[in-house]
Design brief:
By secondary structure, the protein is of the alpha/beta class. The protein has 10 helices and 12 strands. The strands form 2 sheets. Strands 2-1-3-5-6-4 form a 6-stranded mixed beta sheet, sandwiched between helices. The protein has a 6-stranded parallel beta sheet with strand order 9-8-7-10-11-12, sandwiched between helices. It binds 2'-monophosphoadenosine-5'-diphosphate. 2'-monophosphoadenosine-5'-diphosphate binds next to helix 5.
């Protein structure tokens, strides 16, 4: 029940109608017995500063930030966590003394999702597909987690080179190796963790896949697709049919939310609770109606 002690968290972005974050946070609050509600706030372009300042004035405990404001919001914060600063994207604001501190929980979310499946990034050899915003963040996380090597494959090789140069420079390690997607056959032999960070295969284009060539999939021990709709992408099918394990991006979505909730409330959420929320998300996304 909402009463005088209810704390407020929310999401700012545009659009916000299709967000799954209220389901994650309101389920957590209810199951954990916290007096907390989470609401989506549609913020028009040009109103980000007043939204952040207004939320602080209204004693809002925390906010998530989604497209298109993950970069822009950084101008309105009193502090920014190191990883978020490097990536250049903030998706979570945590109330502190005089304003909000910004974090990126998308990448720690991916990391926790991988860890829970028994995959540690440290010393891995990774193939990263894509060089857009999502892939760039994954590249930073790989560098910060001390992967051995990342082959960064992108359709436009110039973007792959730009991301690799930036991540290698900022992390002080030469671990990202840019390549053109069409040259995927030149990735050396070995067994790789492959992270699919392009929009190819996303609903409603679920028949599409970034690479068809079976020889490529022979090199993959685990495939992680950031896409979660459809629940099994063609990329995942191809990884599995060549003997690898494959996961979709739903656990990353889950854990980015859980990590934000932990930051706002100063708690750790148990794995059992996380899995209960995961089941609700699955029901919502895959068994609508
Ligand atoms: P996001 O922020 O979700 O990462 P983005 O910045 O628009 O989105 O990046 C989309 C990524 O998907 C890019 O790596 C893009 O490749 P290009 O940089 O060459 O455009 C990749 N992508 C999208 N459609 C593609 C397609 N049909 N074939 C290959 N790559 C594709």
């Amino acid at each position: 029940m909402i009463d005088g002690n209810t704390k407020v968290c929310g999401l700012i972005g545009n659009p916000v109608e299709h967000t799954l974050s209220p389901l994650i946070h309101n389920t957590l609050a209810k199951r954990l017995g916290h007096h907390l509600v989470y609401v989506p706030f549609l913020v028009e372009d040009g109103a980000v500063k007043s939204a952040v300042d207004g939320a602080f004035a209204l004693n809002v405990l925390g906010l998530n930030v989604t497209v298109p404001y993950k970069g822009k919001v950084m101008e309105n914060l009193v502090q920014i966590d190191d990883l978020a600063e490097q990536i250049g994207a903030v998706n979570t604001l945590v109330r502190c003394g005089s304003g909000f501190k910004g974090y990126n929980t998308d990448m720690p979310g991916l990391c926790r999702a991988l860890t829970r499946e028994g995959i540690m990034l440290k010393e891995q050899e990774v193939i990263l597909l894509g060089a857009g915003g999502a892939a760039r963040a994954v590249a930073f996380m790989c560098a910060s987690q001390k992967v051995k090597k990342v082959y960064l494959l992108n359709r436009s090789v110039d973007k792959a080179k730009a991301v690799a140069e930036e991540v290698n420079r900022k992390s002080g390690r030469e671990c990202i190796c840019p390549m053109a997607l069409k040259d995927h056959g030149k990735v050396p032999d070995g067994k790789f963790l492959a992270i699919q960070a392009t929009s190819v295969g996303l609903y409603p284009n679920e028949k599409d896949v970034i690479i068809e060539d079976g020889a490529f999939y022979e090199k993959i021990h685990t495939g992680y697709d950031l896409v979660y709709k459809p629940g099994t992408t063609r990329f995942m099918e191809l990884v599995k049919s060549h003997g690898g394990e494959a996961y979709n991006g739903l656990k990353m979505l889950l854990y980015q939310g859980i990590i934000a909730y932990e930051l706002w409330n100063g708690i750790s959420v148990s794995e059992e609770m996380a899995l209960q929320v995961y089941e609700m998300l699955e029901r919502e996304i895959y068994h609508e109606g």
